[in-house]
Fold these 4 entries.
Entry 1:
Amino acid sequence: MTHIWQRLRTGDWLTAARMRGYSLLLLALFVLVFAGWIAVSDGLIDRNGKPIGTDFSSFYAAGSLVLDGRPGDVYNMAAHYAREQRIFGAATPNYGWLYPPIFLLVATPLALMPYIMALAVWQISTFALYLSVIGAILRRIPGNVIGPIWLPIAAGFPAVFINLGHGQNGLLTAGLFGAALLALPARPVLSGILFGALAYKPQFALVAPFALLAAGQWRTVVAAGITVVALMAITSLIFGADLWLAFAASTETSRRLLIEQGSVGFEKLQSVYAAVRMWGASVPVAYAAQGAVSAAVVCCTVWAWRSACNPDVKAALLVIATLLASPHVLDYDLVILALAIAFAVRAGFAGGFRDYEISLLAAAWIAPLLSRSIAGATYIPLGLLAVLAFYAFVLRRATLDRGQLRVGAPGVAQA
């Protein structure tokens, strides 16, 4: 037993051969499952009676309504569902449109294509963006010591395939978020534009503005704000300003159905709020627990971003805090956890890996594969626990880095 804990502490059990082997094994398994699932589907409908790409059907239906000159019906749940039934059949489940009008700038062009082609373009393009950003993060490691092994690890990350199976936008979110963090030091305006482009995920904007302000990144904050305003203006001109009023009205229904009633299943949600609700607590108690955790991670992240610790540590901390601060995080959203893993790996190669960090990174990598099933069977929110542990370890590294900087260079200016 002592030997096992020693290997977990050092992380030497996770060899390059094992990382490559585990990743390729999962990749092969996922490809076979997807291929088999499509092979037994009936046209656009899978064997469970759902559209192939499930949630993407909502994007496509919304875009088709816009192309028909009916953008106002996007937030009319009955009209939107009727369009899904028209495309996929009367028995199709209802996948609601819950995004701000900004996301119609993506959904509408996709609806110009046949459904399968649109789904393929969406999946391939966002997957390529995700891989290019992860590669850009890891290729910055001095000496390129990680080599090409990053590719199967990034591609085989289980959250990627949860996202692909749902046809969701987690890969796009990871690509934009990661690109914004990479651009931040040298190109703050570009970074702000990329952060602003994430406005279709407003629940992920609870931490980044505070961190950026704490770091004095005013140009990035201003650029992000201008980008959001510009996107709102563009959508108002194209689709009509009333669409924003319709979206605002729909948020109450979204909050009640998705968060408070857990219509998608609390086992799929990866937040403190969802865990507390899954354990039987009331809505106010769950909100209170989520609020306490959100406030804590915002404060800790702001503290780190005000310090002079490793920029990669700051980036990893911000990504994880973004997940922890929101009550509405689904398992496919855990794709952005790949960014935190990549930044943490880069920080580890730069300053050495602390005890248990390598094993924790492996746990964070595999957790999305098991989180939904374990939560559904045992009420243990494995995904949330992995994210919380990851945040604690990265925050510890930030604290140690700051302490070392003070000892080694007491006159260093705080960032």
Entry 2:
Amino acid sequence: MMFEGLPTPCYVVDEGRIRHNLEILQQLEKDTGCHVLLAQKAFSMYSLYPMIGRYISGTTASGLYEARLGYEEMGKENHVFAPAYKEADMQELVTICDHIIFNSFAQYEKYKDICQAKGVSVGIRVNPQCSTQEGHDIYDPCGYASRLGVTKAQFPEVLPEGIEGLHFHTLCEQNADDLVTTFQAFEEKFGKYLYCIKWLNLGGGHHITRKDYQYETLVKLIRYIRDTYHVTVYLEPGEAVALNAGYMVTEVMDIVHNDMDILILDVSAACHMPDVLEMPYRPPLSGGYEANQKPYTYRLSSMTCLAGDVIGDYSFEKPVQIGDRLVFEDMAIYSMVKNNTFNGMPLPGIALLRENGSKEMVRKFDYQDFKMRL
């Protein structure tokens, strides 16, 4: 009933759950003095930026367009990191970002003068070479031959003048114990540099708003860093801002049978929830269970021509019918920011579920949105 009247497919973002997450992140800032930034690569629904900006310190970007979005729509602290920067992009970045992080000393040398002239605080990303992830090699910046961050072997004995911060990002949907492990490896290799910088950025991948997150462990670590090295600590959670705060509403278009019953949905894993195929990831489904756990099991697939465009196998207590609506959960993160129009699939609409229960369509997409990208 909550999603009646919405077009399908449609992302629906829950304003109340976003606020709940933000209250936790705001409390972290109060408890530790750290600065929390929204990693826009995970969630860029800028219609909510005014609300987000009332709770946390700003935004962080992975390139010019995200940096411009954070600058225009939130207007608070604005950080950026990229493996490399184009000269034309840098000309604008130094006017809209207060922190720019470089992936190599060569990039720093190339752009240090323009950063200094504009008063931008500059940092270097390091690779602590400490992998704490399991099964997500695609998201492991400490893996073999990673291009992300400078290793200790490539680091100078003395930091070049003008570098004010260090940054590492190694986590993906992880708890505070993994951050502690990573920081200990970082401290062993790079700790001496902490005495000559102003800030340390611990990156993202922190599931701070998850129910089982080790909040006190994180607080203890941040306080240790501040008290020992007297630096400002930054964190860049993306998922934590919108964790469990979104839905994907889809309609069953057809049911076919080949070895098992297969639902053809108007939503696509390949187009609308790419992490399902990339990680891989099994999205939670309202009223859906593990295959064969309930009497009726179906494979959920889409209308694209890609044979592997399969969301997963789910079971239900009752038979599913053509025209039924299904609701996937936790669909705010890495969904809208990564979707595409493969096969000419329409982009899902974007709706906001207000705290008073009302629904508001934020965006609708049509043929022109497909055509303009080609």
Entry 3:
Amino acid sequence: MLDSLLRDPVPFWDEFYRDRNKKIPFFHNVPDENLVEYFDNGRLGPGRVLELGCGPGRNAIYLAQKGCEVDAVDLSEEALDWGKERALKKNLAIHFIHQNIFDLDIEDGSYDFIYDSGCFHHLAPHRRLTYVELVNRALKPGGHFAVTCFVMGGSLGGSEISDWEVYRARSVMGGLGYTEEKLKTIFRSFTAVEVRRMKVMGAGSPTFGVPDLWTALFKKNSK
């Protein structure tokens, strides 16, 4: 019932990704700077990975290049077609899945790492508990989860409306903004390894980094 109060996301995102020449920062085929740092500093290594809301595959491609077995999920067929083309050009094997993340059939404890770059902040408030349950169920004990999302009131997005106002307006207003405290509260069943602002990377950088995004890395309890 609550889902029905908000727009159907599939037509919006298919149209969003249809024009690949738009001046959208994350259309560039480079990985998030925080993701690269997790591998460079040894916090993450090769393993089985699930990416939630993968878009045209820029982070999935990086993960595959690092030796990971990658399942990349998105509800936009346009985005996945683009991602498949990119992976093919690099001769990378990535399992792209066209599905709503909440409809995934996942075996418990299947993944070493789950990554979300820009999906979580588009979810309505009533979906947060289901999202946390999905991540917790899919992760192996001791596995990691990382999310990149809007800072509340940020320059690129990050609506400051209350949860109640989402349903009154029937919109997340382009994406909900979060504070560090709220992220730690939502994901309190995990151990926070690092929560910081994304580093801003200049034009032509081999990694993606823009202002006013949170990058947060969490770890599931080993028991």
Entry 4:
Amino acid sequence: MDDLFPNSPHVEMVVFIEMNMFCTVIFRGVYMIKSIIELLSGLKENGIKDIEKYLCIKHGPTIGDMYEGLTKELINKAIFDNLELEVCSGFIKNSKGDYSRQIDCMIVVGEGEKIPETSKKVYSIDKVIAVIEVKKDLFSDDLASAYNNLLSVKSLSEPTRDMKIDMLEMAYKQIVGNALPNPEQIIELSEELQYTYHALVLEAYLPLRIAFGYDGFKSEESLRKSFVNHIDNMKGKKGGGIVSFPNLIISGEFSLIKTNGMPFALATDSNAWISYGSYNGNPLTLLIELIWTRLYYMYDEISYEIFGEEDKVEGINPFLIARGNANGWIYNVLNAKLAKGDDIWKPNEVTDIEYGIVHLLCNGKDISVFDQGFNDYCEENNTTVNKICKNLNEARITTVENGNLKLLTTNCVCAIYNGKFYVGEDSNGQMTRWLGRVQKI
């Protein structure tokens, strides 16, 4: 199976553009328990110190084994004991009998098949939650090597594993700004949106694919430049579609993250899909959030409470826009000023008219964009229905379906504080906690 359709396996074009669009970080499942990140950071630091004592051995396979062992220890600490999960190395196969390359570290369900006289195992792809390619250093050559190893997993893709539709629904809402279409509606989408839709479906089925380099580029800019060079080299080659990109690339202290709405997304004031971002915070944060979000959607017994109540917004910098068509994938590189650090979640500040509209929708009222009274009221207040719809859709609060405004949120809350109007998602209590914080100031 190719990324989307048989005739679209490659990179068609890479273009550099200046980033001048509105962009908001939107995500689900990022309220991390601070203690787990601190624990893993300490284990990682101590593990590296222990390994460094033996780097004098100068034996590549042994050095690789040490870093793989450390990675397995970190991942074992990050998953849950009661889910029959295992962390191991080995190979992945599909129902056709095709095998992946050797996998350094993978999170799997159940026992698997033990390879005789080794500690490695074989698992069918429907039992694999995540695969991690481990590197002591991750520079340009290492990036290409890790990419190809992870690509061998993607090439086994079979949409046969269980998938909770709500993960796909949430991703599509965040990326596109509309509700997930029914199968019969897909043909009505634009070509670009059809490719985006099919890409997100595959993203929801495939295991997480992660490249983990303990050392690497010394700046976020250098990592971004190296990856651009890599995808530029993929022009016309199989494996250049957006689904082939790893979900996460860690190079020392800097990371690249796929913003596919599972959980991270970057919403813009256009229909463009910002499919990749870069990050200069603790890379273990992204690693755990990816894994925990996938487990949350897979297992009913996992409560959202595992993510805690920190309400931290990861400072993900927009990097690549992806556009699919029958000829391949076009990537626009966003040359934006790179922000440093994370922020605290806050709701969307809206106008009084926008607030009133969302409040009515929250109370079950129907609002047609063609209603003459609605249009007249907007004109009297120096705005338009189109402007209101655009603003609320950029914030991923509402969309328009069949001429009616519809909420995109799961549990929207409206609030007036200090003379200003706010609306925000409260499905995980973030809006409630925000109100508690500001009222104490």
